[in-house]
Amino acid sequence: MRYDMTVQQAADVLAVSTKTIRRRIADGTLPAHRVGPRLIRLRRIDLDRFALPIGA
C-alpha cells in the first residue's frame, strides 16, 4: 500500500487541525510512515478506518 497523503491533506479530509493528526500519530491511533528525517505520510484507508463511528 502507498503512503501518499501528507499531514495537511489528512487534516483537510478529516476537517481537523494538523496538530490533531500529529497527536493521533504520536499516541498510535493513526498509523503513519516517516519518509526521511521530516516527512510523514499516511494512507487514505487508515484515515477512513479512523473516521468510522464507534460501534460500526
From TrEMBL:
Q: Name one GO molecular function term.
A: DNA binding
What's a Pfam family this protein contains?
A: HTH_17
For whether the record's keyword set contains Protein biosynthesis, the answer is no
Outline the extent of the Helix-turn-helix domain. Answer: 5-51
Is Electron transport found in the keyword set?
Answer: no
> What InterPro entries does the entry give?
DNA-bd_dom_put_sf (IPR009061), HTH_17 (IPR041657), SinI_DNA-bd (IPR010093)
Superkingdom of source: Bacteria
What protein name does the entry list? Excisionase family DNA-binding protein
Q: Which organism is it from?
A: Rhodococcus opacus (Nocardia opaca)
